[in-house]
Amino acid sequence: MSTIHELNLNYLADYQRLVTEAIHNEHFVYAWGLYDESHIPPDYLDHLLSQDNPVEKVIGLHVDGELVGVATLINSHVYGLRHKAILQNMCVKMIDHYASQELADDLMKYIIQYCQERDIEILMTSIASNNISAKIFYRNYNFETLGVEKHARKLGTRYIDEHWLVSDIKK
User: Fold this and answer.
1) Residue 72 forms beta bridges with which residues?
2) 35-84 residue pLDDT tens
3) Integer Cα distance of 110 and 60 in angstroms
4) Are 162 and 149 spatial neighbours (Cβ–Cβ below 8 Å)?
5) Phi/psi at 72 (nearest 5 deg)?
6) Could you count the other beta carbons within 10 Å of the beta carbon of residue 154?
7) Residue partners of 1: CB distance under 8 A and separation at least 6
8) Which domains does the chain carry?
């Protein structure tokens, strides 16, 4: 049985495990901003999962009690910006291609419904330019390429370009 809901600090260890595994390419990644767990500030995950964080919400997908998928939504509450959100750090556990795809679909459908219930009309995300499977995945949800950000991430001396995608998710 699967459940999807906002995560809080009670899920910190499970979230940290899933994030670490995703960093090491053990899972299907659809949007990612964390590349090296040694560079994540110690209090960052505490802040991210805190119920006092009004801007970032982590959505978790559990199957039979195990956390198998996550995504972070960033939604400013500033007037003029609250109608859009940014999707980050979305991954699902690597089971097999079809099972993992189904998990990602379940998570994405929940995220879209979650946003619509909060009057979020536009959903944006960025993906590494070489993440072809993510491009195909988001195309299925009517995401269009907004632009390419050259040198969006710098890991040591290596740069990663990102494609910014956008979807109108109004009801």
Assistant:
1) 58, 88
2) 666 667 778 888 999 999 999 999 999 999 999 999 999 999 888 889 99
3) 10
4) yes
5) -110, 130
6) 10
7) 63, 64
8) 2-168 (3.40.630.30)
